[in-house]
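W.,

You were right to be curious about this one. When I first looked at the sequence I had no strong expectations either way, so I just let the prediction run and decided to look at it fresh. Below is the sequence, 707 residues in total, followed by the output.
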Amino acid sequence: MRLFIAEKPSLGRAIAAGLGNQKKAEGCIRCGNDVVTWCFGHMLEQAWPRDYKPEYAHWRREHLPIIPSQWKYKVKKDAAAQLDIIGSLLREADSVVNAGDPDREGQLLVDEVLEHFRYTGHVERIWLASLDDLSVKKALANLTDNARYAPLRDAARARSRADWLTGINATRALTIKGRSDGRSDVLSLGRVQTPTLALVVARDLEIAHFKPVDYFVLRASLVHSAGDFAVTFVPSEDQAGLDSSGRLIDAAVANALIAAHKKTDGLVTEATREAKSRAMPLPHCLSSLQKAASSTLGMSAQQVLDTAQALYEKKLTTYPRTDCRYLPEEQFADAAAVLAALSSLPGLEQVAGKADASLKSATWNTKKVTAHHAIAPTGEVPPDSLPQKERALYLMIATAFCLQFHAPMRYEAQKVVVSLADTRWETTGRRILDPGWTAFSGHDDEDDDPDEQSLPPLEKGDTVHCRDVQTLKKKTSPPARFTEGTLIEAMANVHRFVADTDAKTALKEAKGIGTEATRAKVLETLKERGYLVADRKALVSTPLGREVIALTPPTLKDPITTAEWESRLESIAHGAETLDAFLADQCRILPDLLAPILGDGKPAFPCPSCGAALNRRKRKKDGAWFWGCTAYPDCPVILPDDNGKPGKAKPRPALSEYACPACGKPLVKRSGAKGEFYGCSGYPGCKRICPVKPDGSPDFKAKGKRK
């Protein structure tokens, strides 16, 4: 019996349909001599520190760094029943086919199940980039040896263990440090999440500290025999009234320039026209799809990933977790059939129906295809019952594919330079010759200049007359806040945020921080932990998020660090580096990463009794803040809160000369809601109280107890 182990039920069903002769059973589908079963994602999870040593349940400075000598895994509770089914099927199997998703994690999650059951039989691999019937049948006919994908498994395992080492230890270190400074929150750090949070915090601080500057733009209306047009003043380097950025900020200078140039004649010193074309945008990878869908559909990065995954599982589109925007040339011949299928769909009638299947755009380039090609429609027709979000995202994917079969947009780019009273004035223009793909896209290009105009035919040496000059008062603007789409893009292109040239190159080669498959989850984690909040479409850092970044040493929030790690993971995936060598380095540098966080270990607010750190806490009863010793119950010191710092302890009432009638310990005179009373100094062990008589002595005859 040959056993297929799929990553998830939907993938299992697609394979079973390709095998045929299906008969459903518990947790599997039997197809003649083949059986298809499935996982529910990762069936095993890494053990927690307390699973290695019980004392690790308590977060202590002296435990760090925690480095397992032998890695342990636990069966996920919700996966136990299905894992038992897989185990029983493995005992029957003559061979196995790893049917994980076509990526690192897909390789690992099936391989680790085989390792869990110590399976030693023959294992093959099926690689499915799309789940339509034709693709499944082709993949079934081209099974390969699973051993060739061991580097992918090792890369996924290296990522998982490195994240555990960094995340567990850095989180504990920062939390311990936070507690020594009086914080009670768990302060979480992560290899990718922390540099990502740092990007948002830096942007938010830049916006908060931004001071707008007023400046002036001068626009002259010019008259020419062939037609009127406008030009913009370009100040020279020695022009008076400029700031350090070359902006005109002096209103008096602006007014003087207006007066000097109005009603004057000028000369065209440059007039160029150049025929240009603009190719259509490439089909989507996951990050470009997340950016586009965030902007136009208002979807979160995770929603885009989940929706794209649903489309893939419904056989409508290809594998979504890809960082590539190119398609293999071998699939070009199939495009005509896909376009024909799409042309009947509402919303695609024009872009697909008028497509020319013979046109071969730059996207068809096998050499530029990485592990997975661009996201593309399979040609399967979506049902009418397709949910609205899935339909909207499908149309976005399909449109990007169809645009590859339209002509480039052709236009004439124009530039004119005019001299007015020995000053330089410029403008640009554009004349559309053929709209090409832009006629079907709904937009031209994100980089279009809104000030571009249609210019009359001008020649160098032509004279012009300045009818008027207007002043446009403008303000400098702060940078825009990140949205989920632009933050995903920033993670993929984090080199743009780094000044160092060598670092830029390294980050570009590493393709940013995180992967196409993990970036959306990182954003969700940051929101779940209260570090980021959504403000309409924008993502904004919270006070807690900014606090975490302020406390984090540069190495752990520097994107270069995580990008270097990602580059090494890619090397492992290609067999150029080993898992053991990578992890050995991670363990070696771990103490150096933690040292700046832990510092000298001295608490910011030591307990006045024992010297341990005081911790600021909130009382459940009334929500009031107080400070308690972290050595409790050995040290019961409690202090009031004084504007975020430990206040002075209230003086203890003096012991009276009177003894408690219940236990013999001295009584203490106290004040309560109903006035003064005597209470036993042995409270809470003894709860006896006595009213105060007119002469100030305790009334022993009255019987009372504290509640």
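Here's what jumped out at me. The mean pLDDT is 91. And, maybe more interesting for your project: The longest strand covers residues 265-278.

Coffee later to discuss?

I.
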